[in-house]
Amino acid sequence: MNLLSVKRILVGKPIPTDQACHECLDKPTALAVLSSDALSSVAYATQEILLVLVAVGTAARWWSLPIAGAIALLLFIVISSYRQTIQAYPKGGGAYIVAKDNLGQYPGLVAAAALLTDYILTVSVSVAAGVEALSSAFPQLLAFEVPIGVVMVALITWANLRGVKESGRLFSVPTFLFIGLIALLVAVGFIKAAVVGVPPGEAFIHPTTGSETLSLFLILRAFASGCTALTGVEAISDGVPVFRPPEARNARITLTWMGVILGSMFLGITGLCYLYGAVPKAEETVVSQVARQVFGTQPPFSLLYYAVQFATALILVLAANTAFSDFPRLSFFLARDGFIPRQYANRGDRLAFSNGILTLGLFSSALIVIFQGDVNRIIPLYAIGVFTSFTLSQTGMVVRWWRRREPGWVRSIALNGLGAFATALVLVVVAVTKFATGAWAILVLIPALVWLFTRIKVHYSDVASQLSLDHSQYVPRRLKQKVVIPVGGIHRGILQALDYARSISDDATAVYVDIDTQSTEAFIERWGKWTDVPLVVVPSPTRSILEPLLDYFNAVESTCQDSVMTVIVPTFVTAKWWQNLLHNQTAFLIKSALLLQRRKVVVSVRFYLDR
């Protein structure tokens, strides 16, 4: 079985380009694919708020309610703003495109850098939080969180390599299962609290007094932490092209669905955490604590507790799929514009941007390993990129409405202006409150990525300029060919290479490096018996092979100014891949050394072995 066969088994048969329309998604499937990141934030956003507040003491948990209300209001503003963006950019209005079109190249690149880092962090945070939810129900898994996380990323990467539609089918059921179970948890939790009463939670059993004092700065820190609930909201605006026609209308409807579901679940979970006295613990999430108290620990209702934990773990892991949808698409736009390697613009066999998918999987796995799968260590890096892209996108829309003055522009500019102001304010709060705990790294990384993008663009522009035929004075000419064949012995592979050399030029010479006088004399004698191709023997007092060869090639080149020099490197191909590790090392070194040298053509002539 060869590598191509393995690829077909793992990824599937290639999909023709003209079948791309059949890979588009309906609204429910698109909700599952593009909203899983935003919806899954319900599992950790409230916990991040409480994690800050309990530093004052358990009594400060009350502040989680107005903070959650403020975040829900911000969510409404952002959703309304992005509905405007979808209407204005029906072919996909990601922050990069909107900012570049309306604010210029550099704001667009800042938005792109922010989004790329955010997508990588999305995968890392989602998977790490999912594994954390799983280990809350099964503590014996705590020691294996990092390898489990890496395996999960690998599985999601594999699923996305199989194509958008296939991954959508795979991820739809867990998303709707999570929505249904959280809705059940919220409904039963509030009904139980109203009818039966609330069992005492950790905050009521063991009230604490923290080391910090309640201050505006601490409340803002809690607000900034809770704003992770908005991560992934822009995904539907970015992914308009994956919807079935009419794309823009279906995307706007799906975005509204997502906003209503996300806001309801977030407010519900925050309310339950306050009522049931849940506080953050290293060994158990607040959602786990609430579900355990609402459903109890006795069968059969305890099965609902495990179902919630399983669905939470699943949605958190699969939430990474949102990033796997948008990271490759953003990479395509950047590659198309020449800011990252052009390979990222290529679609794979399954019409997915495979290079972007693989890159995202690699970097997010590395983050999980570096931070040991600790969500609380990764979260501070998270919201900077989100709100940078939000702010630039909404500001770009304001500029667009102002320039075009289309019908209804006053209402539109007011809505996007409110979105830009709100998200910019949150960006400042997040940057200030999270700076010391890790946000500084993102503030350094984004300018570094922008610099890298511009250097790649300059390189591509320089290459295009040097290859251009515009204003060229090129005159075609017929060149003679000087052929040189480095040899280390005489065998059937060498003779085949010599035959090829004589077929392309009458001026062919073999060159042999003398590192042992006795062996060289025997070789010269055998050479004359098998071929009449001229042989040049190059001495090597230091027993080096590569340096004397390169000196000889350069000397020959200096004597043939009107010729092109072709170096034919004889190699042989083994029957099994691992056998190749035992051969062709000198040939590899020669080809590598000549790779960057000018006016030399390197040709490999292969001889195939049967066993």
TrEMBL record:
- Mind giving the lineage of the organism this protein is from? Bacteria, Bacillati, Cyanobacteriota, Cyanophyceae, Gloeobacterales
Cellular compartments annotated: Membrane
Q: What membrane topology does this protein have? A: Multi-pass membrane protein
| Pfam families documented for this protein | AA_permease_2
Q: Where are the transmembrane segments?
A: 62-82, 109-131, 137-158, 170-194, 214-233, 254-277, 303-324, 351-373, 379-401, 413-432, 438-456
Q: Which UniProt keywords apply?
A: Membrane, Transmembrane, Transmembrane helix
Name the gene behind this protein: trkD
Superkingdom of this protein's organism: Bacteria
Q: From what organism does this protein derive?
A: Gloeobacter kilaueensis (strain ATCC BAA-2537 / CCAP 1431/1 / ULC 316 / JS1)
- List the protein's name: Potassium transport protein Kup
